[in-house]
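Entry 14: structure prediction run for Tm-1-like ATP-binding domain-containing protein. Input pasted below.
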Amino acid sequence: MKTVALVGTFDSKGTEYQYIKQLLEKLDLNVFTIHTGVFESSFVPDVDVSEIAEQVGENIAQIRQRNDRAYATEILAKGLEILLPKLYEENLFEGVLSFGGTGGTSLVAPGMRQLPIGLPKLIVSTVASGDTSVYVGTSDIIMMPSIVDVSGLNKISKRIFGNAVSAMAGLLNYRFETEEDERPLIATTMFGVTTPAVNYAREYLEKNGYEVLVFHATGVGGRTMESLISDGYFKGVLDLTTTEWADQLVGGILNAGEKRLEAAALAKVPQVVSLGAMDMVNFGPFDTVPEKFKERLFYKHNPTVTLMRTTVEENKKLGQIIAEKLNLVQIETVLTIPKNGFSGIDVVDGPFYYPEADLALIDALKKHLNNEKVKLIELDYAINDQAFAEFSAQQLINLIDKKGN
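Run finished. Output C-alpha cells:
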C-alpha cells in the first residue's frame, strides 16, 4: 500500500482532515499525518507541530504564548522546510497532500518545494486560482482551487475533498513508469522566436548521445533551469535564449530574477551562452503595456503576448549584465553571437530588425567581458539558422568532452 503524508492544521481544521483521512483510507492508502497548526491537534498525529518547531531551535509553547500568527507561520514554514525532506528520506511517504487558505498554503509549500520532482504533491487552496508562483516556485506542486474555504463539511467542500483524494490516489497508484534513460542531460532555453534554433540544436545533441531538456524562457522556466543546474542534474547547458534579462532590466513580465545566468558558472558546469530574443521585452495584452512605453516599437506576438523592441541604450546595459555574469565562470565557456539577428523577427525585413541596437549589445559585451575562460565567437548567421544552432551545440559537446578528460 502506498502512503500519503497528510499535512495541515489539525487544530483549526481537525474535522475536515479526519474526513479526508478516512477518504484516503477507503482508497487503500496509508496516511501519515503531520500537524502544522500552532495549537494542539484534535487527534493524535504521527508528527506533532512541536517537532517542526524544534527543527529551527524553537519551542512550540513559547510560540503559542507569543500569540503572533505571522511569526508562527514563518517559523513553522522554516521548520517544515527542513523536516519534510528528512521524513521523505526515511521512506515514510510517497506523496504529499494538504488543504488550506493563505496561511496554511504558505506554511506547507516551502517544505513541498524541497521534495524531489516527480513525487506527487498536491495542495488544495483558496489561492489556487490566482498567481501561484510564490507557492509553487520552481517545483512541480499541483494546486487545486478549493472553491469554498477549507472550513466545514458541506456539499461543495466534500466534492472538492473527494476529487483531491481521488487525484492523489491516481497519482500514486497509476503512475506511468518510464524507462530509465542513461544518456547525459543537457539543459537548453527556448522562446517562440528561437524555436527553430533550439530544435536544430536538440536534434544535433540527441544524435550525439545526449538527452535534452528544453526550458521555456518565461521567467519561471529560467528559474527552474537554474535551480536544477545547481542541484547537479546536467552535464552541460546550452543557454541559447537569455531574453529573461531584458525583462529583468526594462520591466517586462517574464523576468527570472537577478541570479539568472549564474548557476552553471558557480557549479562549474560546461555551458554555451547566446543572445536569443535579447531584442525584446515581454508584456501581456497590448492594453496592459505601461503607459510610459506607449511610443515604443511593438509586435503583437498573439492576443495575450505583446513584444517591445529593446533600444540601443537598453542593449548597452544588457551587454554589460551578460558580461558580468560570464565573468563569474571558473571553467572554459563559450559565448556564440549571431550577428545577423537575435530572434526570428530580428532579421532583415523583420519587424524588429535594428542592427544598431544589436551592435550596441555586442560592443558592450566585448567591453565588459574580462574573463579569459570565456571564448567569444561571432558568426555571420541569424540565431535560427541551422548552421548557427549546430555550431553552438558542437561547442558544448567539445566543452563537455574537455571537462571529462
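Notes: The chain has 14 helices and 14 strands. Will compare against the previous run tomorrow.
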